[in-house]
Design brief:
The protein is of the alpha/beta class. 49% of the residues lie in helices and 16% in strands. The structure holds adenosine monophosphate.
């Protein structure tokens, strides 16, 4: 199965793709996670990507495309994509890359959440500095304040989850990424899912849509 998760930052793409990946035993490919890991390691990719990620701007396509092609090959061609494609050029390049291997996308899950809710969600999001587990101080708080339930690691705020960067990321989403909904809808691939409510409820909607 080959699925793309689309939706604004903070719509729950990463959380939902993670769940689905565990159930279907298909790799989740998250460009955002891969970039953050590289930035943490300080490798070449991380050094190139850091300024863009911290400002909430898109990392240049050539860098991202090389990364994604490598990750798709490592995943053996079955994948859930989280955070890619982010613009029309990336979407077209993905199509070309897949068709070169006789593959195609099966479905696009579009998680719909409105702008006001996104700002609330992202400003209260916290991430484990050790294992990357994601929490929300309002909707999904950790049992012990500031500590990860899974590994006990310290929770921190992503550097791009500050209000000014959140607003920039939302603008980038609306300008560059939202047009992909129509691009994929033309091919009948889009499942529009209400992304509000509890994580479990949203997951149930996704499961039903994929049946
Ligand atoms: P995310 O974790 O998906 O919200 O991504 C965090 C940041 O990583 C974004 O704001 C971009 O700077 C960068 N990024 C992630 N995926 C892409 C992509 N497909 N194209 C360009 N930049 C990306």
């Amino acid at each position: 199965m080959r699925v793309v998760f689309l939706g604004p930052p903070g719509s729950g793409k990463g959380t939902q793709a993670e769940r689905l990946s565990a159930i279907l035993r298909i790799s989740k490919i998250s460009t955002g996670d891969a970039l953050r890991e590289s930035i943490k390691r300080g490798d070449e990719l991380g050094r190139k990507a850091k300024v863009y990620v911290e400002k909430g701007e898109l990392v240049p396509d050539d860098i991202i495309l090389a990364l994604v092609e490598q990750l798709i090959d490592e995943a053996g061609g079955r994948f859930l994509l989280d955070g890619f494609p982010r613009n029309l050029n990336q979407a077209k390049s993905l199509d070309e890359y897949l068709s070169g291997r006789d593959w195609s996308l099966d479905r696009v899950i579009y998680l719909r959440v409105d702008r006001g809710e996104i700002v609330n969600r992202l400003s209260s999001r916290r991430v484990c500095s050790q294992c990357g587990a994601v929490y929300n101080l309002i909707y999904n708080p950790p049992t012990v304040e500031g500590r990860c339930d899974k590994c006990g690691g310290a929770l921190e705020q992503r550097r791009d989850d500050t209000e000014d960067v959140i607003l920039r990321r939302l603008d980038v989403y609306e300008r560059e990424t939202a047009p992909l909904i129509a691009y994929y809808a033309e091919r009948g691939l889009v499942e529009e899912i209400d992304g509000t409510g509890a994580v479990e409820e949203v997951f149930e909607r996704i499961r039903r849509a994929l049946e």
